[in-house]
Amino acid sequence: MYIKKAEIISLPKVDSTNFEAQRILKKERISSPLWIIADEQTKGKGRSGKKWISNKGNLFASLILPISFDVKNLPMLSCVIALATHECLNYFLGQNEHLKIKWPNDILFEDSKLSGILIENLLSAESNYSIVGVGVNVNSSPLKLDHLTTSLKSIVGITIDIKSILNQLSISLDKYISNLENEELDNL
């Protein structure tokens, strides 16, 4: 799997990158990974029907992932995505011990949410896909939620380029998904 080389569809505004991924898959079959990113989402999706607050300056991305590993290992995908996202963010934070995974889908810095993950699987007789939604509070974080939030910028004190986050996330995903493809689950 070469997610680092995946095509990127970049949109200024969309209802949800996950919704856009679903629309693409209704129209065509995808044979290699495809990123959909947006500057802004109007109806960003979170887990359990919650809305993901989508302030400009943050990463809103969905990866259409053709499933290239044994479907019996599909339950491990959320673990793989969380570990890859954690590794990516730690790259920018300098291996910070305060960065934690709150299973199954949140990355926290101290007790504040920095990133969220949403995975939707589309399985059929013809093809199997996962839509991997990743949101990262890069340069701002939503206020007035029922939980604390933070951003990379507020932690490190500088503006971070969103494309560099996506690039590093792709590198980390390649590594962890390769472990899943090769059934090297002890390496997770």
Automatic annotation (TrEMBL):
Residues 1-181 form the BPL/LPL catalytic domain. GO terms for molecular function: biotin--[biotin carboxyl-carrier protein] ligase activity. GO terms for cellular component: cytoplasm. CDD domains: BPL. InterPro entries: aa-tRNA-synth_II/BPL/LPL (IPR045864), Biotin_CoA_COase_ligase (IPR004408), BPL_LPL_catalytic (IPR004143). Keywords: Ligase. SUPFAM superfamilies: Class II aaRS and biotin synthetases (SSF55681). Gene3D superfamilies: Bira Bifunctional Protein, Domain 2. PANTHER family: BIOTIN PROTEIN LIGASE (PTHR12835), BIOTIN--PROTEIN LIGASE (PTHR12835:SF5). NCBIfam families: birA_ligase. This is BPL/LPL catalytic domain-containing protein. It comes from marine metagenome. The lineage of its organism: unclassified sequences, metagenomes, ecological metagenomes.
